[in-house]
Design a protein that fits this description.
Number of strands: 10
Mean pLDDT: 91
Number of helices: 10
Distance between the termini: 45 Å
Bound molecules: zinc ion
Low-confidence stretches: 1-11
């Protein structure tokens, strides 16, 4: 059962932020795309099982619920693991089939990619995903059809936009917080968190930024979002980020290797601190709350004065 859990102690307390894990293995990351062929994936050491189980134990210890955005490719090979993730109270959502970025596909290929991933996840876990996260936050101004396709395939929400400038991704003009990208659909997009500094948006929702920069930066950013903006943050990390024992990829660019391998051994303690200091929940819960909020805002904007 994919039950929504909501710890009592946070019921009327701090804002509950969205916690997410992008479930892909060390060889499936965008940074190594040029040196590892998709056709070779099956021959590489599988670290998903041990890493996801370690994350599940960490979440149990700190009473956090989360969403696991899982590749269809991974779901097809890890049925028992996905069922355990769901049984332990977490949401399983889609991260697409094999980590192709959305802006490298046309609409037909994207439609096939997300349909194939949904089916693999449903077959593996028994639950049809209602949330989607694009690989490398690759929905942007180039892919207006992506939201239409997600809505048509029955998704309730997406968390696929990084509203920031970055060398590999980003849609700097997008809203910083939850929005409805389509006038005819309730589909909600919940962008990954950014903080404002000197009028500029900084990526502050996890991944390499969380691992490489001092913890104080993330604390400052999430506090800013919760207190000044009074909105929930959306945070993500990957199973391979807590795994210092993963195989090293030779031949990748220095910048990619630095980003991928820095501070792996410090990730688990940092996550513990983050989970203790802020309240966290599943992305479907966040989507529900953001939808209620947007209804209330629309009602008050339209109310007679
Ligand atoms: Zn990913």
């Amino acid at each position: 059962m994919n039950a929504v859990t909501f710890p009592e102690r946070h019921a009327s307390g701090p804002i509950v932020n969205g916690l997410s894990v992008d479930v892909e293995d060390w060889f499936q990351v965008g940074a190594f795309e040029d040196v590892i062929e998709r056709g070779d994936w099956d021959g590489l050491a599988d670290r998903i099982d041990r890493n996801v189980r370690e994350i599940l134990d960490l979440f149990d210890e700190l009473e956090a619920s989360a969403t696991f955005f899982t590749l269809g490719w991974v779901a097809r090979r890890h049925g028992p693991l996905l069922r355990e993730v769901a049984a332990r109270g977490h949401e399983i959502a889609s991260h697409g089939w094999d980590h192709r970025r959305v802006f490298t596909m046309g609409r037909a290929d994207f439609a096939e990619d997300i349909a194939k991933a949904s089916k693999a996840i449903e077959d593996a876990s028994g639950v049809r995903p209602t949330g989607y996260r694009a690989p490398s936050f690759s929905i942007d101004q180039r892919t207006p059809w992506a939201f239409m396709e997600l809505a048509e395939q029955g998704y309730a929400y997406s968390s696929s936009v990084a509203p920031v400038s970055h060398d590999h991704y980003g849609w700097p003009e997008a809203p910083r917080f939850a929005f409805r990208p389509l006038p005819w659909s309730p589909l909600l997009e919940m962008p990954v968190t950014t903080a404002l500094f000197a009028g500029k948006r900084l990526a502050a929702g996890g991944g390499g930024f969380f691992r490489v920069l001092p913890y104080a930066f993330s604390r400052w950013a999430i506090r800013q979002v919760n207190r000044r903006d009074a909105r929930p943050a959306v945070f993500y990390f990957h199973p391979w980020e807590i795994d210092p024992g993963q195989p090293r990829v030779a031949g990748a660019a220095l910048k990619s290797r630095l980003r991928h391998y820095t501070n792996l051994e410090r990730m688990a303690p940092k996550l513990r601190q983050l989970l203790r200091e802020f309240a966290w929940g599943r992305m479907d819960l966040l989507a529900y709350r953001e939808a209620v909020r947007s209804e209330a805002e629309a009602a008050s904007a339209g109310a007679p004065v």
